[in-house]
Sequence to fold (269 residues):
Amino acid sequence: MKTLPIYQVDAFSNDVFGGNPAAVMPLEEWLPDDTMQKLALENNLSETAFLVALPDDTEEDFHIRWFTPGIEVPLCGHATLASAWVLFNKLGWEKKQILLQSKSGPLGVKQADDGWLELDFPNLALEECPTPNLILDALDGAPETSFFVPSDTNYMVILKDEAAVKAAQPDIRKLKQLGSLGVILTAPGSDCDFVSRYFAPGGGIDEDPVTGSIHSVLVPYWAEKLGKNHLLANQVSARGGVLRCELKGDRVAIAGQAAFYMEGSVHLR
Fold:
């Protein structure tokens, strides 16, 4: 019998039941990929993060991987923020910064004086493209032109205003037929710089409550459109979340709060 620790943290919120819940499982060594995928399915959250400490002579401190209930993904913000919260608050990490090795290259998390956690993420490229017919059919009011993110196969669709993003009811069955990870909806915000929602049926998630990783695309886009590098973002899902963002050249800083929900043990035979 193998006993593994597990934590659950609500990321991008300072209140339990807000933001986006993530499971965090620190490991002494990697489990088989099939086992980690089954654990993520059993946890049934949008992401489960797995962490393994790296040797002292390695530049990064930990190797991190993320699994949805259906697939492993190359980048995840909220589960990274949740993992950092666990390291800082439950596992005695004493440095002010955590360096992570990942499928998307080196990542970082640091703790601000006000307790917010700031992710150091890549600035992801996007390509303008005709909006796929499946998106036009699935989403009323979708524009004829949208954007594609090659690194994670998301599409980004710009809507006219915050009300349109909140009111959107895309046909998830049609979006799943895209063969891509998901679709980002975004627009200028009324009380913030921009808002978003994220639908990821390609990863087994109809709607993700708050998604740090999509801000690696959203922040560069809106920084250019609005002519400013410091941006306040709001993901306007039912649970909702607030993100303080900054464009830093080829990197994007994405900051949020976290609320601890529970900890326990997983028993594997």
Helices lie at 33-43, 78-89, 133-138, 162-167, 172-176, 215-226. The mean pLDDT is 96. The chain has six helices and 18 strands. The domain at 127-253 is CATH 3.10.310.10 (Diaminopimelate Epimerase; Chain A, domain 1).
